[in-house]
Structure formats: C-alpha cells, structure tokens
Design a protein that fits this description.
single chain; TerB-like
C-alpha cells in the first residue's frame, strides 16, 4: 500500500491523488513535523489524532488507524524535499494551505517553538507552494485555536 503511494508521489509527473492517499500523505507530513525535534510527544500525537478526526470526519478508531498509517508512511517516505514537492503537484492549493495550518498547530502543540520545527516549517511551506503571507496567517489561526 505505502510502496504504491510513494511510487506515485515520486513519479516525474504525479497525478492528482485519490482522497484516501492524500489523507495519508498529508498526515505523514504532520508526523514528520512532530518528529522533527527528535521527540514525538503524546500531546503531538493527540493533536494529530484530533486534526485527522476533525478534518476528515472520522470516528476515534478510524482516526487512530489513519494516524498509525501516517506514522508508518512518514518513516518510509523519501526525504522531505522530494516528498513535499510531490505532494504539491498532487494536492490542491486549498488542501496544502490547510495542511500548513495543521502543521503550525503541531509545531505549537507543546507551547514551545523548537528550532528544528521552525526550520522544517520554513522549508515545507514554500515547497508546498504556500506563500509566506498565507503561512503566516495559518500560523496565526493555529495559535488562536491553541489559546481558545
């Protein structure tokens, strides 16, 4: 399952991903960010679960299964540069912008801005084709949700 998706993502001319594959690829990015500082905290895992559950209208068991698949996918995915560029070509701008917002939510989950997470965000947003102003607005929306 993952090998086929990875092959399609890294194809020279990737096609639009089916919804289930897009969920997996985008969820894997959430996991990659959460693991960027070398500490995948229970809070980050819970927040990823909540994002997946809310974004895709899943029940708890479905969201848990998807998060587990995303964790495996992230571990098997190629380097962030190739993986992210492939997603850019296969996923709509609106979905990529929403993923940036979710990524900011993960980066801010533990209340600290880690250098590794900030560096990955600075790299991922442009690779996904999301503009700096859109990424900044996504960060502000995520931070607002964290406080409220």
């Amino acid at each position: 399952m993952f090998a086929d998706l990875l092959r399609r993502l890294t194809d020279p001319a990737p096609e639009r991903l089916p919804d289930a594959d897009a969920r997996l690829a985008l969820g894997a990015l959430l996991v990659r960010l959460a693991r960027a500082d070398g500490h995948y905290s229970p809070e980050e895992a819970r927040r990823i679960l909540r994002i997946l559950r809310t974004r895709y209208a899943l029940d708890e068991a479905e969201a848990e299964a998807l998060r587990a698949d995303c964790e495996v996918m992230e571990a098997e995915a190629p380097d962030t540069v190739r993986f992210t560029r492939a997603i850019k070509d296969a996923v709509s701008y609106e979905d990529r912008e929403a993923v940036i917002e979710a990524l900011w939510e993960i980066a801010l989950a533990d209340g600290q801005r880690e250098a590794e997470e900030d560096a990955l965000m600075r790299m991922v947003a442009p690779m996904l084709g999301v503009s700096d102003p859109d990424s900044a607005r996504a960060r502000q929306r995520a931070a607002g949700r964290m406080q409220g």
